[in-house]
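Reading is simple: the token line describes the chain's fold. The lines below illustrate.

. . .
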Amino acid sequence: MKRILHSIIILLSLTIALTQQTYADSFSATALTSRYSSSPYAGDKNAFKGDLAGQCTWYAYGRVIELAEKGELDSQAAALLYAALWGKTGRDAKNWPNSNYVGGTWHCTSVTPLPIEKRRKGLLAVWNFGEHGHVGFVEEVSADKSQYRLSDFNYYNDTNYREKWYPFVGNDSIGGAYPCFYELPLPSTGNASLTYFDGAGSLISPSQSGFGANTDIANMHANPSRTSTAVFQFLNSSDQCHHVDISSSLSEAIIQVKNWGDHEILTAYKGALPISVPSQGTWTVVAVTSTQPLTTDYVSVRAKCKTSSDPLTSSYHNRTALDMKLIPLDSDYYWTGTGSIMSFLGSGTGKTSDFVPTFYSHKSLSSFQWYASSSCSKLTISGGSGSTSLYGDNEVAIKNWSRNKDGWGGNLCSSLPCTISRPNSIDDFYIVKVKTNANATGGSLSAECTN
């Protein structure tokens, strides 16, 4: 009743304003204008593909994935829907606000309208009525924030694409219900924007000298639309590797650090290079991300072990703290860590075998740096849960450590475990990346020399 009374009070002024309305920014057009669309967001990348094509849930899910991959929504929006809805039963639109599905904070408007400060593009809108309810996506909000443009499918069993302007205050009910709104994350200007995974380095035997032992280099390459990320793993030793210093021709970088076995980032900051990275346990993994897309062909990033008597760089003391967020490296895949197979240094962890964690709730992108040699010419990749199928965008791929993104070969495996061979007879460093679905590998991946 309060909602209706509020609507009557301003209905006249809103009606006048509609004829003079100007509009704010909006998202790019969608490819999902037909249930028969050939877009991957209608098919393989959609949790509601197949018989549910043309349903409101199919469209809303696909639209979010589409915009996340374009960089118009934060990639964590795609990860959220994937974890909430992929492979589950009972995913009707009216259930999305429940904690078993999307959950989180929803603002339901049956009593009071959505507050003005919450009105923006990138909202999910769910109407709870009938057996299934309805869901749509807010494409645009008027400049005065009085209206929103909703895109949806299957409005009252009409399995066609539709767009319509609704008032935030007034009659935006469907099936007798007013919408509940959920804010999907927009792209961040901080450390959570989609970045490109480029290279990996290893410092796994600080008592020895040389690349892969107490120092290493990873290359970043030019990418016109994304920042680039290089990752390192180092073994903590107060005598030889208390911390590492990161240096490059880049003037500054974003640094994100965690213990090798953890899922969550433990510390994140931005600072001028060179900059120190203190250890976060026995084994520490570090992601170094450029603050802007690179314009040169490549930039080398070097990590070097420092002892406990070596001072931390002044830039570390003047660093800017950032939010500790998961790192989106490839569409809706998140970086889990990096491992090392430095076979020329001997045997053991980091030399002939290693592990990386994988996510239970997000798709995982894991990597290994592999020194392929006659003593380690084959590498077996295994998941902790036994046999794991690789389908869709999941893959095992390899490139020479110095190559750019065009150096990645095709998918080498259809399932895990699988064994890959070194690309040629020359001893050299390679990067292996493994992309897996959420909870596909039982929480871990291993790599081991098998010859």
Q: What stands out?
A: The two ends are 74 Å apart (CA to CA). The first strand starts at residue 23 and ends at 26.
